[in-house]
UniProtKB/TrEMBL annotation:
Residues 54-257 form the Xylose isomerase-like TIM barrel domain. Keywords: Signal. Pfam families: AP_endonuc_2. This is Xylose isomerase-like TIM barrel domain-containing protein. The keyword Signal applies. Coiled coil: none annotated. Residues 1-16 form the signal peptide.
Amino acid sequence: MKATLLLVLLPMLALAQKPMQINGKDIGMVSFTYRNSLSKDMAKTLDTLKNQGITDMEFSSLFGKTAQEVRSLLDERGMKCSSFGVGMADALNKTDQVGENAKILGASFVRVAWIPHTGPFTLELAQKTAQEFNQIGKALKEKYDLTFCYHNHGFEFEPYGEGTLFDYLVQNTDSKFVSYEMDILWTFFPGQNPATLLEKYGNRFKLMHLKDLKKGVQGNMSGGTSVENDVALGSGQLNIPEIMKAAKKAKIQHYYLEDESSRYPVQTRQSRTYLSNLK
């Protein structure tokens, strides 16, 4: 009985410790997934992630530490921070501080995931945002050699012309300074097809958040839904194989798992197993 159990567990243990890839890229993790444990004990949490084969991180908070302290913890474990997420206000008004922290962390990308707004996203706000994105991206690229990315959150897909206001943002930002991070759930939620959008804009998308939406949940333009609607990849509504095929063609540079639900320890492992078996 014990021998049989060991035979079952050994492949699982090996899976947990071996770094996994999708489309030739390491599967990373968004720090927000482990936000509670990172706040309490970052060292122990990073050990847990490393033991799961996660070595690439996107930090969207420093969790009360300095950038150098976080970098030291990562270096000690042979891990890296490839993307640093900040709020729009800091990206716009504290660009130098953001750039300096990102460089200390070793990141190549700076990411913003929300445009402050009240009510529906409007053309006027999209116009203002495009100008601000160009300003932020130009400063980060020219002074710090960092690539600025905007992470879509669903509300940007309000209809505009023959497309959406997200189309407006992409088409009115300078590709030399502004790129995008696709969150596949927040692309699907407002009624868009992530694969189609990847095919449309190609390598304007540099980064990707991997997450799936619970079956039966109806989307909208709010940019919000219960965190408990996050489910393991392949068990929800999104066509993951189709998206991954389009992502490979678009040459996405970093893939990050994100699961905001209370089930994240189990579901992120399930997601990694699903991706490892994806053909």
